[in-house]
Amino acid sequence: MSDIIIIGAGPGGYRAAEYAAKCGLQVLIVEQGHAGGTCLNEGCIPTKCFCRNAEVLDTLREAGQYGVENLTFSFSFDSVQQRKQQVIGQLRSGVEQLLAQPGITLVRGTARLTGPHSVDVGGQTYEADNIIIATGSRTKWLPIEGTKLDGVVDSTGLLATDHVPRRLCIVGAGVIGMEFASCFSSFGSEVTVVEYLKEALPALDADIAKRLRQTMARRGIDFRMQAAVKRIEPGLRVVFDQKGNEQAVEADMVLMATGRTPNADGLGLESLGIAVGRMGIEVGDTMQTSVESIYAIGDVNGRCMLAHAATAQGLLAVNHIMARRNGTAFQSDQQPVPAAIFTHPEAASVGPTEQQLKESGTDYVCRKGFFRANGKALAQGETEGMVKLFASAADGRILGCHLFGPHAADMAQEVSVLMCRQASLADLAAMTHIHPTLGEVLQEMAF
Predict the structure, then answer these.
(1) What homologous superfamily is domain 345-446 in, according to CATH?
(2) Considering 117, 163, 344, 435, which one is annotated as catalytic?
(3) Percentages (nearest 5) of helix, strand, coil residues in the chain
(4) What is the pTM of this model?
(5) Residue 435 annotated to the active site
(6) What parts of the chain have a pLDDT lower than 70?
(7) Are 262 and 239 in contact (CB under 8 A)?
(8) How far is 249 from 408, CA to CA, in rounded Å?
(9) pLDDT tens-place string over residues 34-86
């Protein structure tokens, strides 16, 4: 009998297994697919491989401004795919080695809960004091006609394609849609993005999202906002209603990027009375479900569908299991979760948007900064970008930051660390920053 059974070997599951084993617990982890989960095999990592290829292509096209003249080159999408697979293979091998360390047993197959302390995998029963569900999520398809047509794909299908479509229509302007729009525009596709909402990236501050979308539009991406897709006709004709007018876009490939839905089906949750809500498996702040010995982390609980959030939730769950095991008090320390969108240029955020601050009645100040005034950005030729930094009007404590521009993800991470330490604008202003760096934008805003 194990101390913990973990269902799913994605970022939440395998990192929780590693941590639990280091704490001296015996862990059995069940995985029906490739180790590493969606993030490593069909999500974050392969997408970032594409983003890097797109960045190199954009740099080559802009080489003239750096004195590299009369440059000619060819682009091999086969090589892009080969490199992507090499990266995935290397990282997957690393995860498999991690899951082979003492204290961890990897079982291949599909798990189903049979009790508060037991699971069935291929007809064999395994038992543990605690169970962590980390089964991730899958594509949420629009319930419209035409999604089964050849050429209509989700992110997994587009990552596996063997060619760059001449015309790519993307349904949805969330993180997945925007990243693929950026990449395939750089690869040479004519990209059209059809979005139901008024603005792209609804989790991002509206000012930042609008400016990023406008920047991407100047690169040739066609955005159709406030457009509800009605059907996809044969020949890949995407029909949508935009402000009462029926319009259509013809494409060679259609990407369905309308979100993710938790993988909560087929786990046997109903028989144990585990509550599943609209977002996913319902959990408390300790990641416990309605059954004390069963936890749910990552995308399957729908709280925050990010790989690093799944990892943090997994560590939290293990810590709570250890506290229960040892009979010690446990206090959940909820830290801010930064996020990034790897478009060109990047966007990132941590903490609430300005609209959310207004709606909550928070008394705040907003500082704005622009990359065009930063020496490093000018030297790099990457001046598109804006930063919004929010702080408490009472004591200057930093509340959040939303931005787009070069290395936005790294800058959001700096603000996240400051927020974890309850730092204020005055603290940030007093911290010496290397010159010239992009991070000086943040310090200048704090003064």
Answers:
(1) FAD/NAD-linked reductase, C-terminal dimerisation domain (3.30.390.30)
(2) 435
(3) 35, 25, 40
(4) 0.96
(5) yes
(6) none
(7) no
(8) 32
(9) 999 999 999 999 999 999 999 999 999 999 999 999 999 999 999 999 999 99
